Amino acid sequence: MKKYYYTAGITGLAVNFLLFAVKLYIGNASLSLTIYCDAINNLGDTFSCAVAMLGFVLAVKLGDKRSLRAQSLAAFVISLIIALTGLFFVYRGLDRLMYPVAVSYTYKYVAVITGTIFVKLILGAVFVKLNKKAPSPIIRALALDSFLDCFITLFTLMSTVLIAKINFAFDAYFAFLCGTAITVEAVRCIIKEARFLINE
Predict the structure, then answer these.
(1) What pLDDT was estimated at residue 190?
(2) Distance CA 12, CA 127 (A)
C-alpha cells in the first residue's frame, strides 16, 4: 500500500511541475492570461503533491486510525491550496477586464496545450487506479483536481483562440468563471475534510 501512495505523490509532482513550466512559457509568450493562470494552477498542483507526499509519510508512520486523520489533514491543505489558486484566477480575471492586452497565439501553442489536456486525463486515470488499490482521501483529491484541470485547460484553449479571432477579453471572463468554479469545489472539499477532522 505504501508504494502506491508514493507512486501517486511522485508522479503527480513530476507531471504537474513539467506542465507548469510548459504553460508558463506559452502563457508569457502569447500574453494569454488564462494560459498563465493555468500554469499557476499546475504550480499549485505541484505543491499539493508535495503536501500529499508529506501526508503519505505521516500516514505510514502513524498507522491505523491516526493514518486516516493525517491523510484527511493533507487533503484539507491540498483543497486550501486549490481554493487559493481559484481566488488568484478570479483576481487576475478582474484585473485583465480593467486592463486588457492583446493576445497572440500560434497553432504550435494550441497543439501543445491540447496535449496537456490528455496528459492530465491520463494522470487522473492513474490516480483513480491507485486509489482503487490503496484508498486514500489524498489520492481522491488529486484525482478530482486532475479531471477539473482538464476542463480548465479546455476553456483556456477556447478562450485563447476566441480572443485572437474576435479581439474580445474572453480570457478575463474565462479566468473569472474558472476561478469561481475551482474555489467553490475546493471550499466544498475543505468543509468535508474539516468536518471529519473536527468529529474524529
Answers:
(1) 85
(2) 9
